[in-house]
Batch of 2 targets.
Target 1
Amino acid sequence: MSRVLQICIMFILSVCVSISFKSRFFIYQSMDGVTRIGVSLEPELLNEFDKIIQKKGYVSRSEAIRDLVRDSLAENEWKNDKDFMCGVITMVYDHDTNGLSDKLTEIQHNALQTIATTIHMHLDHDKCLEIIAVQGELGTLKQLTSDLGSIKGVLRCKLTMAAKSTGHLHYIGVRSD
Ligand code: NI
């Protein structure tokens, strides 16, 4: 066998092995149906995360991360500011902050048609938790959350969407559309 022929056979064999490996790898991936990603976290953050997922009863970090991603995607789906939604604004604030109570009351009184009800809970000597059930156009809910969150002394203010709303605000009657 000539040297050239030997080299040709070696080359063809190596291509065949390479294709076979790649196709097996591809089949493995498609049967598995998932793509694995690496996530880098600081040890403290990972430690806290592990504690929480253990408490919640997740069997793996992957399952917990999948849930977080799904939640985030669901919230992102509600992008149309004209959609009529219902949800909850969760606020934590220091009630001792100068002028906070007045501003909070004023903003909430100006949002009568958006706010369905409010729950107030005293957390400790200074801090309060307020849970505000809201419904209205998404843009309005975002604006209200932003207005409340920007008051000095508000430590946390988060809008959580619950669902699309039919828009039936009982205390002001049924929406016309
Ligand atoms: Ni309070």
Note: The longest helix spans residues 3-32.
Target 2
Amino acid sequence: MPKDKPEFFVRVEPELCKGCGLCVAFCGRDALKMYDDLKSGKRVPQVVNMERCNGCRLCEWYCPDFAIYIVEKVAAKAI
Ligand code: SF4
Ligand code: SF4
């Protein structure tokens, strides 16, 4: 049986990120990893396993630069 799609996703703003890795360290689900972002030339977090992410927001709360956060999907309603 297919799993329900998560009702949220993790957004990273590379231009705000300073590459400290706190979000990766505090993610207890191993959903994030640091990688070299060629566009910004920085090391930034990336969601490597969205299925493991439970939307706990620890990454968002611990980021000192507001560079990672959860975005909740708004369900489209049929009119
Ligand atoms: S919301 Fe929680 S589980 Fe998902 S990436 Fe952030 S810290 Fe990890
Ligand atoms: S905690 Fe924030 S600033 Fe640090 S690596 Fe994660 S997103 Fe970047």
Note: The chain has one domain: 16-72.
